[in-house]
Amino acid sequence: PLYVSASNLEGTVEVQYTRAVVHFRQGKKELAMREIESALESARVAGNVQQQVKLLLQRANFWVNEGNVARAQQEAQTAVDLARTNGVEVLAARSLLQLGNAYFLKSRHAEAEALFEQAREVASRNRARAVEAQALMSLGSLHHTTGATEKAQRELTTAVPLLRQSGYAKDAFDAGILLSRILRDKGELAAAQQAIEEQARDAERRKDV
């Protein structure tokens, strides 16, 4: 039956994706890309949009690591367009965020910032508060790294309560610590102390859960 066939294909795709990730970590790039290409074809046959998006992003990550920015952006845009066409805008936002983090790790700050902003806008439009909060946290971290501390402060101030409300306690804690550091460096010691105390209370609450 078609259902069984699609289910089997989806399982095969997951195995191939896992193999590809392992190959990438081992530096076996050609093997990894072969696994991705094969998995992508299977995901298309099975009609699994989420798997297709995930594989396209993995391919984009490959091109980021190879230093081919144009190709990486092309792959990422294909993933976003596919997600949007199939009515899964939140998946598109997560895709943009994931690729932005890949650029950030490579110190490609301009590209990362554009992707984070796009992820935030898509998430906000679709009221995906958790993804919006993660995008704001990523923007805050990036702007702190690049010295745009006013922007970082605004973004992190908004991100911390959103992250808490979304159940991302560890991210909220990390964002709060970074915010307190920014406030301390600006000489706003009372505000910095307040932020630290909020993180301490948050940590205590997490212990009680």
Question: Over all CA atoms, what is the radius of gyration?
Answer: 19 Å
Content of β-strand: under 5%
How many H/I helices?
Answer: 10
Please state the structural category: mainly alpha
Q: State the order of secondary-structure elements, H for helix, E for strand.
A: HHHHHHHHHH
The largest sheet, given as strand count, sense and whether it forms a barrel, is: none
Span between N and C termini? 46 Å
Number of extended strands: 0
Shape descriptor: elongated
| Share in helix | over 70%
Low-pLDDT regions:
none
User: What's the oligomerization state?
Assistant: single chain
Question: Please, what is the average pLDDT?
Answer: 86
State the gist of this model.
It contains ten helices and no strands.
Topology readout:
Blueprint: H1 2-25, H2 29-46, H3 49-65, H4 69-85, H5 89-105, H6 109-125, H7 129-146, H8 149-165, H9 169-185, H10 189-208
What do these coordinates show?
The protein is mainly alpha-helical and 209 residues long. It has ten helices and no strands. Helix 6 packs antiparallel against helix 7. The longest helix has 24 residues. It is elongated and about 60 Å long. The protein starts with a helix and ends with a helix. The relative contact order is 0.07. The mean pLDDT is 86.
Keywords, separated by commas or semicolons:
209 residues; 10 helices; elongated
